[in-house]
């Protein structure tokens, strides 16, 4: 859609859709899966359960990565505390 000045006008939904590939890639989702997700989206609401399943899979992967990073942070923090004791 274009405004009276001839410039394109985008809804928030359009902007969100344009930003989605960046965020999906940040989850570690491969391009092939993103393409499949987009193809399902283009097929309409009947594919919502499939799209939801894809997003849930990557949400679980993110939770696992978060847990792993938290554990790494705990280990580093403990090691830094040990070094601090030696430096006092």
Question: How many helices in DSSP terms?
Answer: 3
Cα-to-Cα separation, first versus last residue: 66 Å
The main sheet comes to: none
Return the structural class. mainly alpha
Question: What form results from the Cα inertia axes?
Answer: elongated
Element string (H = helix, E = strand): HHH
What level of helicity do the residues show? over 70%
Q: Which parts are unreliable, with pLDDT below 50 for 5 consecutive residues or more?
A: none
In what range is the share of β-strand residues? under 5%
The overall pLDDT, averaged over residues, is 92
Computed CA radius of gyration, to the nearest angstrom: 21 Å
DSSP strand tally: 0
In short:
The chain has 88 residues and is mostly helical.
Structure write-up:
Helix content is 76%, strand content 0%. The protein has 88 residues and is an all-alpha fold. Helix 2 packs antiparallel against helix 3.
Question: What labels would you give this structure?
Answer:
88 residues; mainly alpha
What topology does this entry show?
Elements: H1 12-26, H2 31-42, H3 48-87
Helix pairs in contact: 2-3
